[in-house]
Design goal:
Layout (H helix, E strand, L loop, with lengths): L6 E11 L7 E6 L20 E4 L9 H5 L5 E4 L3 E4 L9 H5 L5 E4 L1 E4 H9 L2 H7 L2 E5 L7 H8 L8 E5 L5 H8 L4 E5 L5 H8 L4 H13 L3 E5 L2
Parallel strand pairs: 2-8, 8-9, 9-10, 10-11
Antiparallel strand pairs: 1-2, 1-7, 3-6, 4-5
Length: 227
Amino acid sequence: MEHTALEGTVFNIERGSNEDGPGIRTVVFLKGCGLRCKWCANPESQLAAPEIMHIGNVCVQCGQCVETCPQGAISRREGYGYITDRAKCTLCLACVRGCYINARKLQGMKYTVDALVQEVLKDKAFFLRSGGGVTFSGGEPLLQAAFLTEAAAVRAQQVPSLVETCGFVPLESLQQAAAQADAFFYDFKHIDPARHKALTGHDNRQILENLHWLLENFPGNISVRYP
């Protein structure tokens, strides 16, 4: 595989999954999503940039993070807990290091394609034995289409790649990823445009157009999923 310095933002890598495609899989969660689904399972994935997440059900309200932050970016908001002002936060991670119960966490790390591929290949033996591979999820992984496409080239090393998308991306991004992916999970939210907009913040026109293109042009497996 050709070496590249192209970077992407990953907010989690989950190993040993058996629910995100066939066999045993490593799931790479890429950060950023254009939809704002009311039921979003990973709200920390919505913003494209790395951010500090406050885990409210772990926090004991000691206020240490307020004292630790050199930028004065953290304050307590009634009903929400200790919230970080992203405009002031420099991601110095002082609050993360200073939280003794791990109620603060950095969501989003930069990876080069090469570094991510090496992480995925650590599990190659499991893929080969089980018929598994790597699943790119999110967020919306196709918002980082160039990064995903280069990372999906790991299929040349006998690692199948599956892309999980909501389809709310430019068609060119879908086409770019389809050239390397082996399969797609297409998470369709709602058939009615108005209801779709009410639930996600956008209508489904682009999503339907992309799904039609994929069904007509992609030679691999496509699973359309409906919540």
